[in-house]
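Per your request, structure below.
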């Protein structure tokens, strides 16, 4: 029988007794476990409130674990009974222990948190979810903690704290703009800056909207709606509107930035993939003293006219090695929207890769046409 060890809180028992050592458990919970490769396990959380929080509303967190990990999870009081393939059971134990540690640290765990936790632990490279998900950036207007949910998001938030210009580049749904907005509101509340400036290029996403009614501000307002939505999620609508009226928070199209110097400001440029090279240079040179700029975008969703180079793509290539400028990259693994969004992004990426490979093959064939074979003369 393998060796036994005791950690803090909770209790885990394994039923299969194959003898290979197993160090997959790094428990913030109490564990007494054999160093084995299990096919079933029992985890005792020993705390009714923590168990309820871990299971979720109507056991939705446990049901999600079953669907995603291919294990069976049963609850008896404060005990969770796991069964399934050895590696899946081992991973689920690790997941449960990490989620328990987060709950005991005072942070609630929702269904989307479990989804992200599975991604983070599945990728490896992190010892504990607490290193990623604890330490909230801000509390939203509904008193919900806003915090990183992936390793890339954690690095992004840390980069914003440490650098004056940060690029957040990646697919839709990875939290680039949302976290930047949370950081901006946090800096404003802590009096590290005096105002927030939110900018976005007014570019139609592949469709003609025609002439819009109203003055210039009213015409560009539809393009800025996503920024208003994020802002209202960070603070009550009345307070946000008051800040906007007082000029503490300014939401404006990118064209309004020309000729200005932005001191003591937290500036966010959203949808930056739709800037031209000239617009990006103009925006970056607006930054004044004691200011930060966060530029977000997805280089795969450029809506510029054919032949126009994206300012975001160009800036990423020429600014990467400048001290004080950070470029944070996100992937489909960091998507925090509906789980199907991640699959949609992967499907489009596969399609684009296949298209590029086919084009490269056609170009190669066109540049090196097969040589015509010489025909032998036919004797009469």
């Amino acid at each position: 029988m393998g060796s036994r060890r005791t950690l803090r809180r909770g209790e885990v028992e394994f039923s299969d007794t194959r003898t290979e050592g197993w160090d997959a458990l790094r428990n913030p919970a109490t564990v007494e476990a054999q160093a084995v490769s299990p096919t079933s396990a029992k985890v005792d959380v020993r705390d009714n409130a923590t168990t309820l929080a871990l299971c979720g509303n109507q056991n939705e967190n446990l049901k999600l674990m079953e669907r995603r990990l291919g294990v069976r999870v049963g609850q008896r009081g404060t005990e969770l009974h796991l069964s399934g393939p050895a590696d899946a059971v081992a991973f689920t134990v690790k997941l449960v222990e990490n989620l328990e540690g987060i709950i005991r640290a005072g942070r609630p765990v929702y269904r989307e948190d479990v989804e992200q936790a599975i991604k983070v632990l599945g990728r490896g490279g992190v010892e504990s979810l607490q290193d990623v998900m604890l330490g909230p950036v801000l509390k939203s207007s509904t008193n919900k903690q806003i915090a990183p949910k992936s390793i890339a998001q954690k690095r992004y938030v840390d980069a914003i704290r440490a650098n004056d210009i940060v690029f957040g580049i990646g697919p839709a749904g990875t939290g680039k703009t949302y976290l930047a907005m949370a950081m901006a509101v946090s800096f404003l509340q802590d009096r590290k800056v005096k105002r927030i400036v939110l900018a976005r290029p007014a570019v139609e996403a592949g469709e003609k909207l025609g002439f819009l009614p109203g003055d210039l501000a009213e015409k560009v307002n539809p393009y800025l709606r996503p920024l208003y939505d994020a802002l209202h999620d960070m603070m009550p609508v009345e307070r946000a509107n008051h800040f906007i009226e007082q000029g503490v928070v300014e939401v404006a199209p990118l064209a309004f930035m020309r000729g200005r110097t932005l001191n003591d400001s937290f500036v966010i440029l959203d949808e930056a993939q739709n800037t031209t090279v000239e617009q990006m240079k103009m925006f970056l040179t607006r930054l004044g003293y004691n200011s930060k700029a966060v530029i977000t975008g997805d280089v795969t969703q450029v809506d510029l006219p054919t032949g126009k180079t994206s300012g975001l793509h160009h800036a990423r290539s020429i600014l990467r090695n400048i001290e004080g400028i950070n470029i944070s990259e996100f992937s489909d693994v960091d998507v925090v929207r509906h789980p199907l969004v991640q699959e949609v992004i992967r499907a489009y990426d596969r399609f684009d890769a296949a298209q590029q490979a086919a084009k490269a093959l056609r170009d190669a064939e066109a540049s090196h046409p097969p040589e015509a074979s010489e025909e032998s003369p036919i004797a009469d």
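The chain is about 40% helix and 15% strand.

Regards,
D.
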